[in-house]
Design goal:
The complex is a heterodimer of chains A (about 900) and B (about 190). Chain A is mainly alpha-helical and about 900 residues long. Chain A is built from 40 helices and eleven strands. In chain A, the strands form three sheets. A six-stranded antiparallel β-sheet of chain A has the order 3-4-5-6-8-7, with helices on one face. In chain A, α19 packs antiparallel against α35 and α31 runs parallel beside α33. In chain B, about 80% of the residues lie in helices and about 0% in strands. Chain B is globular, with a radius of gyration of 17 Å. The chains are: A mainly alpha (about 900), B mainly alpha (about 190). Chains A and B meet through α1, α3, β2, α4 and α8 of A and α2, α3, α5, α7 and α8 of B.
């Protein structure tokens, strides 16, 4: 019944609100029909309506403008002339923005008169953090100055609690106005622009990011010298603001909407790359007289969306499009058509723009179309890492352009445009896929070699012919339980295998070639079943038998050697594996020559070993060479050619070069389908690999059915706990993780980890990989950060014991742990892990990317770490080059 | 079903007026909002508050950009996001209340930087309780609070989300504030 009353009251309230305030009460009394409770309630409600706007309810503050909860109160911040702030007296106001008011001011205590610009923030009562940061920035700026910067002279917090900054006062014109006024040519504009860019580069070298580069912050004096204003200030302003997105929506905030970089718009951490973008935008404007996006937007959100998503128009295109001409056939896609722009009519200002540059529209268009346009667009790419890596490189490319040399900037490839950037987060768990890929390719190559060895042996001796016949009989018997042969039949022949193993000793007590071959074949079957320890026992027995009977150079001995190398590889004993494989290779190369298919196989295996050991670069060249030889000798669609293509893909994969991998894997998948059919384990493998590349390229819709199908078929063909099944499940879990289905991912990782733990023990790399994956899932959940951190620490210890202290997996995981600790606010632990990784030569690209580290670690500390990582990366390059030469 | 297909389907149902579809869309954006909100809070200096507008806008870029999801119009997204944002903020408030009372040290460390939510945690939980009752008066009053207060949307964006005019939003907003003050200030249930 109360609810009925409420609804009536609300209805009356709604109608009363349409009336003038003074007419409301009488209206309510009239309508209430003598219901005094109702009248009383509505009266109270009306009274509440007149309450303070900024409070939703007592104690619950909000802003009437967009901005969410509890904005920082902004007092009236204007200062009368004569007001003294610190050691300065206000002369008059120069201008005001959303964040601050700028005054002309004079020192009060100085013996000489120094005119300064004093910027007083509107927000009062900054937190200790802001003040500390202010102090920090001031110290940095005091240490590093540049003749082309307007110097930051002083700063503090005034009596009313408003932070203020004192800067050198510059008399000049904004750079774009200056250039237009003086009709500067493109060449002259580049000259002055390069000076600006070098001043920014100098700032970066001193760990200062500008963050708000725009024409009005670059004044050119009457003498033609550019001066950059507000260095390091945007950051202070941003810190005192409520949040970056809010700042964005306010004109004159720490960043200016039209000049914001995509990462600023997305409220992602801002680095020197943001300055590269803004410099690109400045260059765009200076040379073309236009901006790269539409001129008008319905809202800041629209503009932000364009900055974040729309590809910038090429400067030439933008220039040629008269202002107001939103539509031009074939040139503009539907999303860009702007009705609001059409009514302006076509204003052809091209001649005007060209005239301001001392040239004709035609010539200017030509100039904009070439390398200059490519340079501008490279600086403007959406992803920071695809822009120039530094301002220095942008400067360098412009200088190349001016000198008529080849520039580095090239238009995006269509493959790139098709798909955006690679995500590195999951690199480590996908290494699992890579391992599997290499493993099966290896197995197939070797078993094909086995066929050839048999043929050769047949020709060589009659004894061997008999041996082969009897062996074949047994081998066929066993092969039933080899899932690569059984294809879908349940694996029940394990018992036969066990019996056969016992039977060898009884039936063939003497060492013979037949016995050696039997032992090896059984070893290989165990290997294919994923039981590596049993495989190793048999293969070692086979090696001993073969050596006794036929000597070390006999094909059977070499074969066993290769098989042993392979199994050791699977067990993670890389050094031993490398030694065994190299031995086998040297014998066969001597006997058969460098381009014999078997020799090619062994060379392939060595390249794969390099991948296992984390020396990806070392694998690439041999594999490219092998692929070329195989294509020539064996043909495009040959199994071995496809296997090598897959391995090359794996080497590129682990270096994150996915755009190059995708066509290779697609080729392998299609080739395998044609040659082997859809259910063959190798086709399944190729499918799984292609699926995981799609996953990495974030083509989830394509990847998911492929990965699910692979899991299903593998379970059926190989069994639930086969390494290949587990590997496929790991990929699927990765996809689920990436698409936010954390629960299902966690369940799978748990199962996979449990299976590896049982089969391979806690120290095995696969067990560690799966533990890493599990740790990654948990680190998505703040409540389980502790657990995740413990797991990652364990994984690092494991990797280091297994592969050595500086293996890429260990260092990568250290980096992940450092990020996690940073998220938990453990500054010291985060720093310790990073230092550990960097001291071991860690210099992966992601270390240099914006991350949570920026928020936790002092900029100098992080900068110093990055610097030493960069140095070790450079020294690696030098070492590699010299060892090749 | 693929998550983006699922969103697209639910959106169609939502557009056709199925309230249930709306309820099911909320958890799909909740996780994104929560993560983005956390990132915002982490970035800010201590004493920072949650900039809900930024969170919602960022989530929009993220989801609108994700392949295969067709949000049709931004209003749909904003309405769903506003509800999810309310849940995110209330979840934070609950946790910080729990932390205060239970002395859960870790939670407090984690919540560092959420002073505004922490400071207002009790009032936020009161608000949450009262909002349920407000729904009995008019569901749109709750929605306008979600949009304006929790998601920090402007009047125009709120109008877009509720598929109505700015003027209506202004009236709804005034009514909602009046009711909430009535309930919260007096510490009594609506109307008595």
């Amino acid at each position: 019944m109360d609810e009925a009353l409420w609804r009536r009251a609300d209805e009356l309230l709604d109608r009363a609100l349409e009336l003038a305030p003074e007419a409301r009460e009488s209206f309510v009394e009239e309508q209430a029909g003598g219901n005094s409770r109702l009248v009383e309630l509505v009266r109270r409600l009306l009274h509440h309506v007149d309450g303070p706007e900024e409070e939703l309810a007592p104690g619950l503050r909000l802003s009437a403008s967009p901005g969410g909860l509890a904005p920082i109160p902004r007092g009236d911040s204007s200062c009368e002339p004569g007001t003294v702030i610190g050691r300065y007296r206000i002369v008059h106001e120069l201008g005001r923005g959303g964040m601050a008011v700028v005054y002309r001011a004079q020192r009060v205590d100085g013996s000489f008169e120094q005119e300064v610009a004093l910027k007083r923030l509107r927000a009062a009562g900054p937190s200790r953090d802001v003040i500390r940061r202010l102090e920090q920035e001031r110290q940095i700026l005091a240490r590093a100055t540049h003749p082309d910067w307007a110097r930051l002279l002083d700063g503090g917090v005034d009596a009313e609690g408003h932070p203020y900054l004192v800067m050198e006062k510059v008399d000049g014109l904004p750079i774009d106005e200056y250039c237009d006024l003086h009709r500067r040519s493109i060449e002259q504009r580049l000259e002055i622009y390069l000076r600006v860019a070098r001043a920014v580069a100098y700032a970066h070298a001193n760990l200062v990011v500008h963050r708000d580069i725009k024409p009005s912050n670059i004044l050119v004096t009457a003498e033609g010298h550019p001066k950059l204003l507000d260095f390091g200030i945007a950051r202070i302003l941003a810190d005192s603001s409520q949040d970056p997105a809010e700042a964005l929506t306010r004109e004159g905030g720490p960043m200016t909407p039209a000049y914001a970089s995509p990462e600023q718009v997305r409220a992602q951490p801002v680095t020197t790359q943001s300055d590269v973008y803004q410099l690109g935008l400045l260059l765009y404007l200076l040379v073309s007289g236009r901006t790269p996006y539409r001129r008008r937007y319905d809202s800041p959100l629209e503009l932000a969306r364009a900055i974040s998503e729309d590809p910038p128009l090429a400067p030439r295109e933008a220039f040629l499009r008269p202002r107001g001409a939103a539509k031009e056939a074939g040139e503009v896609d539907a999303g860009e058509v702007d009705a609001g722009e059409v009514d302006a009519g076509e204003v052809d200002d091209r001649d005007f723009i060209a005239g301001r540059r001392g040239t004709t529209a035609e010539r200017l268009a030509r100039q904009l179309g070439g390398d200059l346009g490519a340079i501008v667009l490279k600086a403007l790419r959406k992803e920071p890492r695809r822009r120039y890596a530094s301002v220095a490189l942008l400067v360098d490319d412009l200088e190349r352009y001016r000198e008529g040399r080849t520039v580095r900037a090239r238009p995006d490839s269509w493959a790139y445009r098709l798909k955006t950037f690679v995500r590195r987060y999951r690199a480590a768990s996908l290494l699992g896929v890579l391992l599997l890929l290499a493993m099966v390719a290896f197995a197939v190559v070797v078993s094909l070699q086995a066929q050839r060895v048999i043929e050769e042996r047949d020709r060589a001796s009659r004894e061997a012919e008999i041996a082969q016949e009897s062996t074949s009989f047994l081998v066929d018997l066993f092969r039933v339980s080899d899932p690569h042969q059984a294809q879908g039949a349940s694996i029940t022949a394990r018992e036969i295998l066990e019996r056969g193993r016992e039977g060898i000793d009884q039936r063939m007590p003497q060492p013979t070639l037949v016995r050696a071959r039997l032992e090896r074949t059984m070893g290989e079957v165990y290997e294919n079943l994923g039981e590596y320890q049993a495989a190793l026992d048999l293969l070692e027995a086979a090696a001993e038998t073969a050596r006794q009977v036929a000597g070390e150079d006999h094909p059977e001995s070499v074969e066993v050697l290769a098989a042993l190398g392979r199994v050791h590889q699977r067990l993670g004993n890389y050094a031993l594996s490398r030694e065994l494989t190299t031995q086998a290779l040297e014998i066969r190369r001597r006997q058969l020559g460098a381009e014999d298919p078997e020799v090619l196989g062994l060379r392939t295996n060595l390249a794969i070993l390099a991948i296992y050991s984390g020396r990806y670069g070392e694998a690439e060249d041999p594999l490219r060479e092998l692929l070329e030889v195989r294509r020539r000798i064996q043909g495009e669609d040959h199994q071995d050619t496809l296997a090598t293509a897959a391995n090359l893909g794996a080497a590129l994969f682990s270096q994150g070069r996915l755009e190059e991998v995708e066509p290779l894997y697609r080729e392998v998948y299609e080739g395998s389908q044609r040659a082997l059919g859809a259910d063959h384990p190798r086709t399944l493998l190729a499918a799984s690999n292609l699926g995981s590349v799609w996953l990495q390229l974030e083509q989830f819709e394509a990847a998911e059915p492929l990965l699910r199908d692979t899991v299903r078929r593998r379970r059926q063909v190989l069994g639930e706990e086969h390494p290949a099944t587990l590997s496929a499940e790991t990929n699927l879990a990765g996809l689920l993780l990436d698409t936010g289905r954390l629960e299902e991912a966690e369940i799978i990782y748990h199962r996979v980890h449990g299976a590896y733990l049982k089969q391979l023990g806690a120290e095995h790399f696969r067990t560690l990989d799966s533990f890493y994956d599990l740790g990654q899932v948990l680190s998505r959940d703040p409540l389980r950060h502790d657990q995740a951190a413990r797991m990652l620490a364990e994984v690092i210890t494991g990797y280091r014991q297994l592969h050595g202290p500086d293996h890429p997996f260990a260092l990568h995981t250290l980096h992940r742990l450092a990020l996690l600790e940073a998220e938990r606010g453990n500054e010291a632990a985060s720093l310790a892990h990073l230092e550990d990784a960097v001291s071991q030569g860690y210099s992966a690209a992601e270390l240099f990317e914006p991350s949570v580290l920026e928020d936790v670690l002092p900029p100098e500390v992080l900068g110093a770490l990055r610097e030493s990582a960069r140095r070790s990366a450079n020294s690696d390059d030098v070492a590699e080059t010299s060892s090749e030469g | 079903m693929n998550p983006s297909d699922e969103i697209t389907q639910l959106l169609h149902a939502f557009r056709d007026g199925e309230q249930e579809a709306f309820e099911r869309l909320v958890p799909l954006v909740y996780e994104d909002l929560r993560r983005i909100a956390r990132a915002h809070l982490r970035r800010g200096p201590s004493g920072q508050t949650l900039g809900a507008t930024g969170v919602v806008h960022e989530a929009y870029f993220k989801l609108a950009g994700s392949a295969g999801v067709d949000w049709e119009n931004r209003g749909h997204f904003l309405a769903v996001a506003a509800r999810a944002m309310r849940q995110v903020i209330i979840a934070y408030a609950r946790r910080s209340c729990a932390a205060k009372r239970g002395g859960d040290e870790r939670a407090q460390t984690f919540e560092e930087g959420q002073i505004a939510i922490e400071r207002q945690a009790d009032q936020l939980l009161d608000l949450e309780r009262v909002l349920d009752r407000l729904a009995a008066v008019d569901q749109r009053l709750v929605q306008v609070v979600e949009c304006r207060f929790f998601a920090g949307l402007s009047e125009m964006e709120t109008a877009e989300a509720l598929d109505t005019s700015v003027r209506t939003v202004q009236r709804l907003w005034a009514r909602a504030r009046a009711w909430l003050r009535e309930a919260l200030a007096e510490g009594v249930e609506f109307g008595g």
